[in-house]
Write a structure and sequence with these properties.
InterPro entries: ATPase_NBD, Carb_kinase_FGGY, Carb_kinase_FGGY_CS, FGGY_C, FGGY_Carb_Kinase, FGGY_N
GO biological process, one term: carbohydrate metabolic process
Pfam families: FGGY_C, FGGY_N
CATH topology of one domain: Nucleotidyltransferase, domain 5
Mean pLDDT: 92
Helix content: 25-40%
Number of helices: 17
Protein name: Gluconate kinase, FGGY family
Radius of gyration: 24 Å
Strand order of the largest sheet: 19-20-18-17-23-24-25
Strand content: 15-25%
Family: Belongs to the FGGY kinase family.
Low-confidence stretches: 1-16, 525-529
Largest sheet: 7 strands, mixed
Length: about 525
């Protein structure tokens, strides 16, 4: 940049204006959201676009990658058009565990098979049953569960062998979007750590996992750090987003670890809990590892930060089911009325326990086998007890995940929570009571998109470290457990945990009998989770 020299010989360099706005793009299961943030954490613009989750056969949950790419491009372009500031870069988050087969030209020849797809249940169960299954979980950080790409690959090899042989590369949805935006096929350590194919201790593709899947490393994208920067957009992507072609693109990470960052839970001992449609509990650690029993996952955020925890399939979807099944008279959008109904029942729901496995379950058992169940029902229970027991069941399942996090050797000093459930005062208090710890609720942030933006800012040198998230995220309220309610839940939790094992034979029999029974009814919202 030219300098201006005055006659006195003093050289003055004009101030350099560096763009400080990063757009965090979160590619979710049912929508993509693009959100622009400055380095102070201020949201400057956002836009979200949805797309369908298709269920062509029982157990299938897949999407058209092209529709997702279109949503990414359009949401970015709308945010860019609203901004008055220049954009320093894009940074990405996405749902984990997706799998897409590409041909030699990089075009999808399979749908995007999502985490919610359970067609590979039998393959996952075979992997869990062999002695090496737990060792593989400990090495890759990913449980043997149909959500994972490893059993999905086995399913394709066994059920669609001709298609399997045609695939040139197997990728995740973010990998493919970045290929279309930047012309480079890469996958970050975070997304890769959720495939069941990555040795998380060496950050290399695991040879045993590849052998089980029937593929070689050249069938997968090149591994890069989550802070890797792809320097150029393709001319078409630049045109469709309205951004300069030289706009840097930060590869980013998975939505789970980035949600921790978005809540400011980035230091060891700080747990992030989220309850949206599903739910999760994660703590950041400095070295990868899982508990001896394999009750948790371990996914990368950066090479120095790892998210240890577990996800549950059944969060807010349980409340939605309760409205449709137990209180249809309250109307379609009756969440507030349902919570008010639940508040009429006491803590513990009069001895009524619900196992909330309406869409099977993940952590800490990592089995697609279980179904929901009410236990302890008497003639004295009314629908307020049933609704409350459903909400309590979600919190109790998260408490089991938290126990597994501790069993992995992790200290839990602080819990921060977010998600749609946080709008309910009753559910906030219930979570604190069940967990037996204070729970802090940050002021609204867009979670994974904010985490993606912060990671991008660090990668681009706009902030010193993602540690600033702790200060940027403002705590709105901290809920402390009620001693009496907390004691009730503490007495019920061991029974809640025991019921899973007690009912496994019944779950097994139901699945064996299922082909001869009338067709299973559709979920209340028509979408698996």
């Amino acid at each position: 940049m030219p300098a201006f020299t005055f006659s006195e010989g003093v050289t003055v360099v004009p101030p350099v204006t560096v763009p400080k706005v990063v757009i965090g793009v979160d590619i979710g299961t049912t929508s993509t959201k693009a959100v622009a943030y400055d380095t102070h954490g201020k949201q400057l613009g956002s836009h979200s676009l949805g797309y369908p989750l298709d269920n062509p056969l029982p157990g299938y949950a897949e999407q058209d990658p092209r529709l997702i790419l279109d949503a990414v491009l359009r949401s970015i372009s709308i945010v860019v058009a609203e901004l008055v500031q220049p954009v320093a870069g894009l940074s990405f988050s996405s749902a984990m565990h997706s799998l897409i087969g590409l041909d030699s030209d990089g075009n999808p020849i399979t749908p995007s098979v999502t985490w919610a797809d359970s067609r590979s249940t039998r393959q996952a169960e075979r992997l869990r049953a062999v002695p090496s299954g737990l060792a593989l979980h400990r090495r890759t950080g990913t449980p043997m569960h149909p959500m994972s790409p490893l059993p999905k690959l086995l399913w394709f090899a066994e059920q669609e062998p001709k298609l399997f042989e045609k695939v040139t590369h197997w990728v995740g949805i973010k990998d493919w979007v970045l290929l279309r935006l930047c012309g480079t096929l890469v996958t970050d350590h975070s997304i890769a750590s959720a495939t069941g194919l990555l040795d998380i201790h060496r950050l290399e593709w695991d040879s045993e996992a590849l052998s089980i899947a029937g593929i070689t490393a050249d069938k997968l994208p090149r591994l890069v750090a989550t802070t890797a920067v792809l320097p150029d957009l393709t001319p078409q992507a630049a045109s469709e987003t309205g951004l300069p072609q030289r706009t840097p693109v930060v590869v980013g990470a998975g939505d789970g670890p980035l949600a921790n960052l978005g809540l400011g839970a980035v230091h060891p001992g700080m747990v992030a809990c989220s309850i949206g449609t599903s739910g999760a509990m994660r703590v950041m650690v400095e070295r990868p590892g899982v508990d001896p029993l394999g009750g948790v996952f371990c996914y990368a955020l950066t090479e120095q930060r790892w998210a240890v925890g577990g996800a549950i399939n059944n969060g807010g979807i349980v409340l939605k089911w309760a409205g449709a099944a137990l209180a249809p008279d309250l109307g379609e959008h009756s969440e507030e009325d349902l919570v008010a109904l639940a508040a009429r029942a006491p803590a513990g729901s009069g001895g009524l326990i619900m196992l909330p496995y309406l869409h099977s379950e993940r952590a800490p058992h990592w089995s697609a086998l279980p179904r929901g169940a009410y236990v302890g029902l008497t003639h004295g229970h009314r629908r307020e007890h049933l609704v409350r027991a459903a909400l309590e069941g979600v919190c109790q399942q998260l408490a089991l995940v938290l126990s597994s996090v501790r069993a992995a050797g992790n200290e839990v000093r602080e819990i921060r929570a977010g998600g749609g459930f946080a709008r309910s005062g009753l559910w906030r208090q219930m979570l604190a009571d069940v967990l037996g710890m204070p729970v802090s609720f940050p002021a609204a942030h867009e979670g994974s998109s904010f985490g993606a933006a912060l990671l991008g800012m660090e990668a681009l040198g706009l902030i010193s470290s993602i540690d600033v998230a702790v200060d940027l995220v403002r705590i709105e309220e901290t809920i402390r457990p009620d001693p009496a309610a907390s004691a009730t839940y503490a007495s019920l939790l061991p029974l809640f945990a025991e019921l899973y094992d007690a009912l496994v034979p019944a779950f097994t029999s139901i699945r064996r009998m299922a082909p001869g029974l009338p067709a299973e009814p559709e979920p209340s919202d028509g979408k698996p989770r």
